[in-house]
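[SOLVED] Need 3D model of a two-part complex

Original post:
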Amino acid sequence: MPDSLDPQATPALGAAGAADSSLQAAQDSLGHALERARSGEDRELAALVRDEGQQLVRLLFGLLRMTRVHAINNEAFEKPLGELRETMNLLVETLGVIHCIAVEDQIYVNDVRIRFQDRGEGGTDLGMEFRRLGIGGMSFHAVPELDHLRVLVRGFAKPPVGAVSREALRLQLLSKGSDTIELHGLFRFRVSGEEEDIEEQDARVVARRATSVVDETWDNLVGNRVPNPLPLRRAITEILHMGAGLDGLWDDPRGASAFGGHTLRVARYSLFLASGCGLSDEAVQDLGLAAMFHDIGYSAREGASAPSDTDPGQPGFAPPFERHAGAGARILLRQRGFHEAKIRRALAALEHHRDFNDPKGRPSLFARIIRICEDYDNLVRRKGGRYAPPDAIAHMVQGAGTRYDPVLMQVFVNVMGKWPPGSLLELNDGRIVRSISTARDIRRWASPLARVEVDEDQQHYRQNFPIIDLATQGKVIRQLGHR
Amino acid sequence: MADHPKTPPAPAVLDDSTTDTLSPGAGVQNSSAPSTDAASAAPQEPAESREDFLLREEATVGDTALALGLNKGLRALARAARSFLLYDPSNEAIRVFLTAYRTDMLGAIQAVMESGQFGSGVELFIRPFEMVWAGETVYLERDRERSLAFRMFRDGVRRLTLRGDVTWDELLRLLQIMSIRFTGVRQQEDDIVTLLWKAGFKGIEIVAVEGFVPEDEEVGDDEAVVDQVAGQGEERGRRQSARGGRSADARTAASFVDAPADFDLPIAPLLPVGRVIPVAVDQDELLALQLEATSHTLPEQCVRLAHEMLSLVADPRDPTDWPDIRYLLDEVRDFLLAEGQLQPLIDLVTAMEDMRTGDSTHLDDALRAFVDGRALVRIVRSIPAAHTRPPPDLLWLLDHLPGDHLAHALDILASERSVGARRIARQLVEHFVDADPDLVLARIQGGDPAVAADLLRAFCVAVPARTLEAIGAAVSRGDADLSFEALRVLDRAAVSPEVLDLLLQLLESEVEEVRLRSLEQITHRNARTLFQAVQDHLAKASHQRMSPKEASAFGTTLVSLDQARAHRLLSEWIRPKSLFKRIFQDPIGHKWLQWAAVSGVAQVPGDEPEKLIRWLAERAGSDLADHCVRTLARRRREMANA
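Solution:
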């Protein structure tokens, strides 16, 4: 079988020969892949989003068009408004937040493209209606009050009744106390390759986005919804595109919750460690996703009960430390359909606090990686041990072989460097710098990039920190205190 | 590519009639199809079958030899991807399409590369219904259901570059991704972009839609909104309060629960400080880690996860309960079944059995599903064709799991066509037939004859005491397969009146080969008591359809049963003593009796038989005379050899 187009490697491009067995293998492999794909399908969920999403779009579009022929207080609006709320109720229960996005000529409801059998059902036309006000889509964070829906619909009527812009409609909604409907600007498709030009400041945007997804995931899971890995997977892909070690990604994302920040950092460390081990792209991505979910067990609510007509329901309590790992696996397993990544991340969530030499057996690879990264972050983070990064690692290395996988621990040491990102260092010229990069190679293991926080004249920088390469300038004379 | 202006992708102009529903013939009603009026005015043509529709070749397009080559390769890719809509992945037809894909696509890429004019690869721009290479359309199909270009475009692929160093393995993975899309599978875990990304192509580059971004980069206050909708979640409302939490007033959703402030705390007791130095890690140790991250370890990980979750269910302190893990158990079971991983399946069952306590309703429900009908089909299919016996692991599993395994095995035997699967299923029936022999007997009497033949074999092995009863049921149906199987079983049965009676019944078969083999067995058993019955059968058969071969067989059988009696009888048939009989005998029936007689008496030693045969040879018609001459010649040869 020819394996490449190298003429020397393809002497028998059309020849049969040994091809039969390889074709048989190819056929078997395709069969397996299809079966795997089918087993990973959650038909029920996809069908619900598609059907109810289509209904949502159809009703919304119908209501917007009705503003052309009926006064907004006409009773004709009542029935479709009620139906719209019912549909939203079902979708919110299932998805948490409804994102209805029009981009170019497509309509998406929570990433599922909505398709229509006939024109006139509202598909592309809804996008055109939105576009009149400069709106690209809407997010419904809860089922809006009927009055708020009326305001929304009225906004699409012709002026002077309707709004003239997205901002005007947003203000109208706020003035009526609506805080559940978000109006988004216009969108276009983003194609691969665009990230290549992203600069450092955008790396921080990537980090902020990622923590936002973690937070939204958290909210959804607190609401007892099914985990949706796709947005987090995209966030991981974006981080990987940027480069897991890019310095902007090592900062605390602005606006991130402590939980979101911790989650993202653990994911980043994990990606970095996995890359240091030479894991495949697919494994690295799956690991990153597993790390994003590793502590999600805290979102479980033990003792919670659903409200009913007679009972307001109980909110429940977060599980204690010793049960959050099991709770995490339990939550992740709510997602239907078999998928290799799902199995690995559930196992990682379950075992990520286990020791390498646990009597129950060696934890899974993902769990062992996350264990190191999580312990490290817990030692250095503000509300954790607040240890300086080098000190944290120094305490951890003694656990190689007992708490930690010794090979992974050594790789972690190798990739983090002597002065891991965040290390505060005093240089021989009096400057105080903070390490912002991991080890770029073994030769520069003790010489990361650093940003100058205090210069030779004891001038403190608050922003626009100068960046220096400790491999070419400055000599570290001591490490300073805590994080 | 320098000599050819690049053709930018066309803007997305898809109408909203697109549907994922793949219904037979749906594609005929597409935008390229003639209008209803035109169609009604046209002469009626037979409706195109689903198979024809999906496998019909796309239009041949391309102005140059290279473009035509690419067109051929892309059409092969499209057809191979579509073929999974029609055929089971193991079907022989799939192989044909794979062969064409490999030959045509690799050949086309090689030709382009050898031309030396087009850089490092074949850069294809994906439009809604066509693909463009170097300014030429190299793929065109306007039917949405059939079109490879449409599927790719709709899934966000905008450019596809097949580099010169692309490998067959990569092309196969590309086909795999396309096939998944063509078969309409929608995975919750991956979309096509992440699938392509995860494929880690080296020789294939893809430019694809990866999400949404704002049209206007100056988003100002709306930046958070944009971020959120860029598929990345809600940003607004995430303004951090002074110490890590999220401010409730910034939230737009109604519910709001923060993570506990002390998550993961207190930290584990500190270890003494150690020496931190870089040390190169052994490549073998890294390889071991890399191997651990491959699918190779997945079965073991599945079982481990299931085991761990079962432990949580058993732990009274943990709120995890059966409903929390039911899907996991089903999914893991299906995965292991599909992969033919019996040992991990056994490990899982063992782990579950270890959990058995007072109330085991949930456990039994879960275990019952482990080897239901669907599951057993998967297992049987996964057993390599070279295996002639059910794996002991499978038998262990079935013996330890509740369920109607016999009925499931019977269903497999009824539905599976492959020889290997049927062989395994038949042996499973043998294994379980004791559970309900009457059920199997009923299937022998009333089921599909081909299946009943397998069942007969299994039944007779497993329930020897009721062998003749089963054969009787089989023989009474008159089916050839069943009759052959009955003969095969009877051949090994000890002689008895019942067996002889069954052999006689088989002489009634409409299939000559069955009758011949029945006569053989009667001969071998030397059942003298059957002489009259065989004679009667011959007499009766001589008036019906009979071949020379069968007539001869009857004759020799009669001689073998009772030579003296046969000699008398056959001599009379050859040369009746009564003149009346010589004149007024039935010309057709008597011809076959005489034919049988010639073959029979030829077996009798002495001069008399030869005289008789010669006498007949001088008087018989040409066929019978020839038979006499040939028989005499053979007899002389055999006697000389003796």
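Edit: Chain B has 30 helices and five strands.
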